[in-house]
Design brief:
- The chain has 380 residues and is of the alpha/beta class.
- The protein contains 14 helices and 12 strands.
- It has 2 domains: 9-251, Type I PLP-dependent aspartate aminotransferase-like (Major domain) (Aspartate Aminotransferase, domain 2, 3-Layer(aba) Sandwich); 254-379, Aspartate Aminotransferase, domain 1 (Alpha-Beta Complex), CATH 3.90.1150.
- 37% of the residues lie in helices and 16% in strands.
- Helix 3 crosses helix 8 and helix 12 (314-324) crosses helix 14.
- The protein is globular, with a radius of gyration of 21 Å.
- 48% of the residues are buried.
- Bound molecules: pyridoxal-5'-phosphate.
Amino acid sequence: MSENPGFTRQTLVAQALGHVDPINGALVPPIHLATTYIRDPDNQYRSGFIYGRPDNATVREAEAIIAMLEGAAGAMVLGSGMSAALAVFMALRPGDHAIIPTVMYWGLRNWLINDAVEWGLKIELVDTTDLAALQAAIRPGETKLIWLETPSNPMWTVSDIAAIAVIAHAAGARLAVDSTCATPLLTQPLALGADIVMHSATKYLNGHSDVIAGALATARLDDFWGRIERVRRNFGQILGPLEAYLLIRGMRTLPLRVAAACAGAMELALRFSNHAAVAEVLYPGLESHPEHAIAKRQMQGGFGGMLSIRLRGGEAAAIKAAAEVKLWKRATSLGGVESLIEHRASIEGAGSPCPPDLLRLSVGSETVDDLYGDLDHAMR
Ligand code: PLP
């Protein structure tokens, strides 16, 4: 980015940071498949590459784009969002106390509650929208990480990153933010004081529902980042070069896709707020949302493409509506160009804060009238 200080992130990402192949002038980054690299006659590796498990040139291109998007000192791509998140927790030490939100991606919450204890971590769930509760949960000298997800799955609560960064740092802890649903365009956690940002790159960054990938970005290339790098290298969690290439291709249209998703989600949130079958719409862009003021301050350019609706007819009505849609795709995941609908309680199971009458909507790039008409018809 330093070579192009005046250009916007939209411009830089559209051109994959202006990649031009030094050998043939190609405007598209190549896919480097080699797993091993030639050693110089004097035993050095001046190319900077040794072996494919720690490093790969296509992966580095994807990482440079993500670092630019997040204003980060460095970025890392891994085999999935889960492997990215777990790499952060595995970089902690046995006995460390970590605070996680009560509302968050259920797969990670389950691992943290059920399995992280095996690694010696002390995990505590806190409502991270409640700063007093968060402050009270801090264990001086023991709390080493606060993990946030904002907006958070599937209730779309918003946590105040800047305020929580102050609390974390005063306690000597790091702040990591799962910013998957905010995308690097709508929220910049590092600029707000976070130390690490995580993305399920499977979602908006790639955007086409054809790559499983994860990303981390860091404010500083410090010891903790080095520990995370060692977790990725030694557990063999680097993203494959084919996936890294697809991720680069997907990221080039990120601003266009995110703008369409935000506009569609806002419009649908407003329309469903007046729908007879809908009891409540959960979307940070609505003035009725409890953390709308924080979202307005923390998010720029939109409130994201994710919303949930709660149906007056309860669980049965929610499951029936999801069964009746023709255009929305009944599937898990989010952040693709095709809109998805999901009865989350069915997938999250026991212990989930998700109410049974809730349908989670991931808004893609289709026409809002088509999406509204399809779900309106299904709910009638
Ligand atoms: N974080 C969030 C917010 C998610 O929605 C997901 C997946 O749904 C993940 C993390 C895990 O990502 P992945 O499925 O790429 O491992």
